[in-house]
Amino acid sequence: MFRRFVLPTVLALATGTFALTTPAAAASDPAVFINNLGNQFQVAAGDPSAAQRLAGFRQLFRENFDIPGLGRFALGRFARSLSPLEQQQFLALFETYVVYTYSNRLSDLAADGGLPRVRGSRPDADGAIVSSEVIRGHAAQPIKVDWRLTWRDGVYKISDVFIDGLSMAFAGRSELEGVVERNGGRPQAILAVMRQQCASVAPP
């Protein structure tokens, strides 16, 4: 669940080195924002302390991704069937799952020797879309990665990632719909499955 969202995003962030940029530049330029984020993930992945890596990934995820927006979109119509407390629990589990997965996979992918290259950006309805390519190791064809950024309260937030044209937000919603369908149409099953997923990827 969510692996098709998390792992390609990890790959896109993990496989390159980036020049440091100033916070002001990253805040106003969408291409610089993505470059700077990749550099920060590289730094976090290199921390020898597992606890510090987890803390670093969690901070970066909270600061740069639209967690509430991603969660609401993934839940879709099922949000109406969950209480406010259950919705909060889902968002917390969603964040934890992604952070654990980053911690488990990012360091390995960072050593693969690839280089993401930002190809440009264009305005979007609520912000911008940044186009990039990721070359991983000796792969013949680059992976096309587009980042949808939403401008909110003076900063950009990542609201979707497109891997070779596939929306990770829509993939996550589809995963949740499958969970509900396989569990008798009960949206509450999402929480139980998310807890299982978090336990399965939790660091030792």
What does this structure look like?
It is a single chain. About 6% of the residues have low confidence. A 5-stranded antiparallel sheet has the order 1-2-3-4-5. Helices cover 55% and strands 20% of the residues. The longest helix is centred in the middle third of the chain and has 27 residues. It is α+β, with helices and mostly antiparallel strands and 204 residues long. β1 and β2 form a beta hairpin.
Write the layout of secondary structure elements.
Blueprint (H helix, E strand, L loop, with lengths): L2 H12 L8 H6 L1 H16 L4 H15 L2 H9 L8 H27 L4 E10 L2 E9 L7 E10 L2 E9 L2 E2 H15 L6 H13 L3
Antiparallel strand pairs: 1-2, 2-3, 3-4, 4-5
Helix pairs in contact: 1-6, 3-4, 4-6, 5-7, 6-8
Task: Give a quick rundown of the structure.
The protein has 8 helices and 5 strands. By secondary structure, it is α+β, with helices and mostly antiparallel strands. It has a 5-stranded antiparallel beta sheet.
Largest sheet: 5 strands, antiparallel
Please mark out the parts with pLDDT under 50 across 5 or more consecutive residues, or reply none: 14-25
Broad structural category: alpha+beta
The total of helices stands at: 8
Order of helices and strands: HHHHHHEEEEEHH
Share of helical residues = 55-70%
**From the alpha-carbon coordinates, what is the Rg to the nearest angstrom?**
17 Å
Integer tally of domains: 1
Tell me the CATH topology: Nuclear Transport Factor 2, Chain: A
The N- and C-terminal alpha carbons lie at a distance of 20 Å
